Each structure stands twice: as structure tokens, then as C-alpha cells.
Amino acid sequence: MPYTHHSHSGQFCGHAKGTLEEMLQTAIEKGFQTYSMTEHIPRPIEDFYPEETKEHTPESLVRLFDDYLTEAARLRKIYSPEIKILIGFESEWIRPSTLQMIRDVQGKFSFDFFMGSIHHTHTIPIDFDRATYEQARDAAGGSDERLFEDYFDEQYEMLQALTPPVVGHFDLIRLLSDHRDDQFKDMKGVWERMHRNLEYIASYGGVLELNAAGLRKGLAEPYPCLPICRDFLKMGGRFAMSDDSHGVDQVGTNYSRLLDYIGKTGIREMHYVDSDAPSTDSRFPHAGFSSISVEDLCQLPFWTRVHE
User: Fold this and answer.
1) In order of start, what are the domains of the chain with their CATH numbers?
2) What is the pLDDT of residues 284-300, one digit of tens each?
3) Which of 132, 147, 284, 290 is 20 to 30 A removed from 185 (C-alpha atoms)?
4) Residue range 225-231: average pLDDT?
5) Cα distance between residue 115 and residue 166, in whole Å
6) What DSSP string runs through 259-289?
7) pLDDT per residue over 178-227, tens digit each?
8) Beta strand spans in 155-221 (E)
């Protein structure tokens, strides 16, 4: 039953490794019952990542995403007897034109869901490397706290515009900061913004991703950190699991640690996108959400395997 709502392949993402089929085959080998494909949407040239500038044009990124959808549909047809496959995408939120790009993507294909994420603040990447993080911090006024506030304000804009069914790595902003593991201590304005965003997610029934990639990248806790999870839990918020894998060696990585973390949060029920569940969102007519108790989750044979 363990599942991931967030994954990328080197076939369709320049900073990942492996083909989409290899990623899927690895998920089957490791005992996943549900695997979600969420490649990045196309972006304009001013928002290319460094590894894309020599290999792509805006037009080729659009074609690459179209190729992803074709390949995802092919793989689902082949492997559906072995594993549930969900086809989605991961959003960006960079500048006003981003909204139209997302709408264009949604108009091309009937997705099962999508992951609502932001990776930029002041149009500058905040999780790519330390140098670009510092550029974003300078643009925000020179402090982590000011940048955090701006990040969560931009996240709120994304949430209002898109109402994503699953919200990705809610507090990604802490990854490269000087305050990566202090749980936003003594940052009143940041906490007010996070609480506001969580209330909005809960209001429309959005699901918060518990993302194990934070552990892989050296954080003490997954995304989001423990106080955020507990705040959302008090609101009746729902949670889902993800590994945010960018290669076959990252499929299911740190899932045992993620399960331990779930126990610490007090979460008693985990949710997952399910193609057999009735849809409650007209945008995604072919999938809804199901749930499993954490007690039952812990008893699944998946955990007897090695997931380091």
C-alpha cells in the first residue's frame, strides 16, 4: 500500500536520472501499490534551470511534456495489472504568466490529480543551490525571515489560484537557509502566514504532502516540519506520503523514517489518490481520495522489506 504522490524521471526532468519505465519498475519491485507520475510543467526561457539552457527551447519543453503524457499512458496500459498508476504533474508558481501555462497544460489532458508546489520566490529558485537561494534572500531584503514571509505569501497566491488537490513540500524554503532545522522559531510573521495557508488548504479539502526528500537532503525532519503537521492536524487536515524521487535509487528512500515521523505527528489516518475512489472534484473525474489508518499502514508487508 505505501505509495508516492511525487516523482520525476531523467527521461523528462533534467535534474533527475533514469527512464520513467525504470522508475515504475523499481516501485513495483519495492512493493508499492500506487505510483504517481508528476513531471514538471513547461516553463518560459527566463525560468529555465541551468541544465536546461543548452538542451531546450520553450517549444522543446512543451514537446517533452507532451511526450511524457504519451509515455505515461503507455506505461499505465502495460503495468496496470501490477500497480496503480496515477498521471499528474507538478506545478510551478513563478510569475503571472505561470497561471496561463498551467491552464494550458490542464486543457491538454485529463489528469488524475496534480501536485501544487512552488520552487521560486521573487522569480528566483530557492532550492536549486545556495547561490540562487542567497539571490532570492537578497531580493527579499537580506534575511531568511523576510524571504520566508515572501515565500509563504507567494504560496498563498498559488493556493488561491489553483486549489491543488495535493500541496507539495509545504516548507521547502527552509532547505538551504540558515534556519533549516529550527522549525521557524520566533518568526511570528512567518507562522501567521503558514497558519493562514494551512487554514486555506483545509478549507477546500486539500491534502498536505509528507515528503521524505527532506530527509534525503540532510534535514532533520521531512517536509513539512513537526509543528506545521500538528497545526494542520488540529484543523482536520489530511496528509499523503511521497518520496519525491529523482532516480531509481530514491524510490521509497527513507520511507521507514517517514513512517516513524508519522507516528510522532499524531496523524492517525493517511490519504492517497485512488483511481477506484469516487471523484469529488470535477477537474479530476477519474480519481478521488481513499484513506488507511496508520495502524493498518504499519501492518502492511511493505515494511518487512529494506527501504533505507
Assistant:
1) 90-304 (3.20.20.140)
2) 999 999 999 999 999 88
3) 132
4) 97
5) 5
6) HHHHHHHT--EEEEEETTSPPS-TT-TT-EE
7) 999 999 999 999 999 999 999 999 999 999 999 999 999 999 999 999 99
8) 166-167, 207-211
Element (H, E) at 192: helix 188-204
Three cell numbers at 27?
Answer: 516501485
Q: From the CA atom positions of the chain, what is the Rg in Å? A: 18
pLDDT (0 to 100) of residue 169: 97
Alpha carbons 126 and 252: distance in angstroms, whole number:
25
pTM: 0.95
Nearest-angstrom CA–CA distance, 199 and 233: 10
By C-alpha distance, which of 206, 201, 217, 136 is closest to 165? Answer: 206
Instruction: Mention every residue, 6+ apart, whose C-beta is less than 8 A from residue 229.
Output: 208, 210, 239, 265, 267
Q: Which residues are paired to 241 by β-bridges?
A: 210
Residues 240-255 have pLDDT tens digits of 999 999 999 999 999 9
Residue 10, all three cell numbers:
531523467
Burial (CB count <10 Å: 0-12, 13-18, 19+), residue 108: exposed
